[in-house]
Amino acid sequence: MNADRLSANKKILKRPHWINRFLEGWSIYRKNLLGKIGLVLLIFFALMALSSFIPPKIDPMYEPMAGVDPEISKATAPSMRHWLGTDFIGRDLFSQLLVGARIAFLVGISAAFMSVFLGTAIGMIAGYAGRFTDTILMRLADIIMVMPSLLVLLMLSALFSKLSIWFIVLFIALFRWPGVSRVIRAQTLSLKHRPFIEAAKVAGASHLRIIFRHIMPNVLPLSFLYMTFQVTSAIIIEAALAFLGFGDPSTVSWGMMLQWVWKTGHMFKAPYWLLPPGICISLITLSFYMLGRAMDEVLDPRLRKEGENY
Amino acid sequence: MELLRYIYRRLIQIVIIFFVILTILFFLFHLAPGDPVSRMVDPNLTPEDAQLIIKELGLDQPLWMQYLYYLKNFLTGHFGSSFHYGQPVIDIIGNRLPNTILLFTTSIILSAIVGIYLGKIASWHKGKKTDTLMTLGALITHTVFLPWMALIMIWIFAYRLGWFPITGMISEEVWLNPNAGVWWKMIDVLHHMALPLVTLFLIHFGSYLLIMRSSMLNTLKEDYILTGRAKGLSEKVIRDHHAAPNAALPVVTSVGLSLAFSINGGALTETVFTWPGIGRELVFAVSHNDYPLAMASFLLIAIVVLLSNLVVDILYAYLDPRIRY
Amino acid sequence: MTLLEVKNLDINYHAQGGILKAVEGVSFSLEKGRSLGFVGESGCGKTTLGMALMKLLPSNGFIGGGQIIFEGEDILKKNEEEMRKVRWRKISMIFQAAMNALNPVQRVGNQIVEAIMTHDPSLKKDEAFEMVEDLFKLVGIPKDRIKDYPHQYSGGMKQRAIIAMALACKPNLIIADEPTTALDVIVQDQILQEIKSLQEEFQMSIIFISHDISVVAEVSHEIGIMYAGKLVEYGYREEVFESPRHPYTKALLSSYPTLNGEKNRLTPIPGETPNLINPPTGCRFFDRCPVAVSLCKINPPKWVAISPTHKVLCYQCGRECGI
Predict the structure, then answer these.
(1) Which residue of C lies nearest to B241 if distances are taken between CA atoms?
(2) Quick check: is B81 in a domain?
């Protein structure tokens, strides 16, 4: 019994550190059913996003925004030609749905990345610097957190007229960083007083070096975890904005599709148009959420189910 | 009393935050591309009338003077006239506010109470079918896209089944009828409120359920629960009288933290269901470039959010004696 | 009259990796009006023992064997419903004040009243509150603090409130689990004196559990030393404290500094407690014992009677050991 464990341990020690952590995390993640379902769904959506480039290549009438079917110019039910049917001016709904997946990932991941980047940086600085800087930054965070992001974005779009997708992403990030920064700040505060930080200070490390070399690596797993939750909120905000008519008019997102079905009065008549985008938004939200919960278990040992053998 | 001082401090905080928001809005107005003047003056007015308004609102003055005018106007309730409605903005938003409060407050209270109750039950039956069902149900309803759910609700329950009206808050036949009593009018409003209320409820109760559930599971590990058992109390008494009041506290905190999210949802719901509230008014005003109305609606919503936060904080202080004393 | 008799009690836990034998083969008895103290380091099983006496083991704990005979009945045979009537009314517990033993959102007085009225539903609320007033007077808490919340109490006051609560239903047996740990020494002493005088005045039967042998020696008539789930020495306080026989007991006593007397070096006990999932077959103290011989490793030690009231679980202690 001991000999086997000894050789297994030797193998583990030979691998690079981060691979071990990843494999360890994966074995815990694997046991979470919801996490697996979430991952499968996300892969499915990713495939959707990737294949969004295909339909227009097959036939220009499948262009989601500008595609015109010479034979159809109104909303029609699913058929062999148009797998999900067409919208009110004859555009193919299936290709719209695929592009929507692409936009969802694009918006979700970029906004999440930006907000986590901002939130982590600000959180670390606030936690590390303390006192005045900390108070100012956290007060700012409080004010932003109190505001309903969607409605502020509406006001902003009123003042700055129609927003492009990248503006939307930027503004979402500007609204979501406070949540991340609070958590990162708390973590930084608890790390700040650990002996290894004291040791680094004594050795003469500059503040910047301490933050980036010592604090950041310990804080990143948390940031990464929060990214999944940020993706869901970014996707939902973009979808809600598009739904209300304030999205980027040059892109087709799922929210935009819902806007069209609603505003053109087809919502009662065309379930093939009404149902898919809504289901997609809800499902992608659900899958990122499940992913996040499973990752939470990986990162926080207290949440793991009892009975695991290490 | 401690509680009063706490409220007093929070009110001052709110006033400060609100002024910050007010100021930021002012500067955004002036920094945004385009002519700020055109945002305060109805484009449909004749040049002479437009000049009158400009003089009245002090739009020809230097920036810092405009800021003072802005503050003065705000404090006296002069938000200008709505471009679209042609009426003073203050009348419009004053009319809409109670409707939003009615829908919003009812939905939050309902989802919180049901969420806490079901979360408590789910934690009792942890791991069993009831729990799995409730947790999954909460998870699914919580992640459905709100406007879409609203559309589905209308489609199924109003359009196909005809049980509820499709739009609005009141039926004119009832309210214009001089013989209709107060009860009838109330029932009419409730009838219209049913679908938006259920939609908002379904979206929100899930998160409260999940939080209460995990909170109960954590609370049941506390030492005073052991004391309760040692005292010979029944499991029911322990769960309801000792665990639940403690476990509910994080849920109240969560209600406070998610108020912004709830207001977003409220505005979306009002828009889809054509419920004449402040949220819907904001969306409408922005889509029609009705700047005075948009700005005032936004500021009013900001006040509502800040005050709701205060209400939740007071509620929490009331429930947790460690804050009060 | 024998109030409590424990025979060969085994208490186990389901743990990762197997069954943890937290308490094995413990036997002792307690007469009415006497107090008994259990001493041992963390993990020796003393708290588990205390919990088991009220059948308050956590969900992964279970009784592996033996009997707990209280007032003539084996309480291990009682079901939960019957046990609830016994708890607090017949046997109550004094918890550590540093624990969160009081519900933070309920007033202290109400929590004690709850205990009283659960076991005597015929009482009216104001009668119960009067009883609480009397109890507070007894333990030395001012009457006007009844309506306060636990966080408003100091550590010492909380401990007194917990004592008052334990006395509320006038139980026949009180189990005090580390009641003075985490209090500062002055308060500790006060509380100990309180407990001692309460015990003498009301002739209470107490089981006192602590890791601090000097504390136990203050209050208990008899002392039991526990190590790794087993009782290793047992006797009258004077016998155990002044002429300890078991190497562990001796080590325990010499690891405490004395204010008076010679200045001796503190001798900590080297080594660690054994793994209780697979406990060693021989003496559990073998690894750390300064006088162990090979016999001790193979065969579990037997009880040796030093006097009619003092016994030791050790091969070497039939005669004087030379530590």
Answers:
(1) C106
(2) no
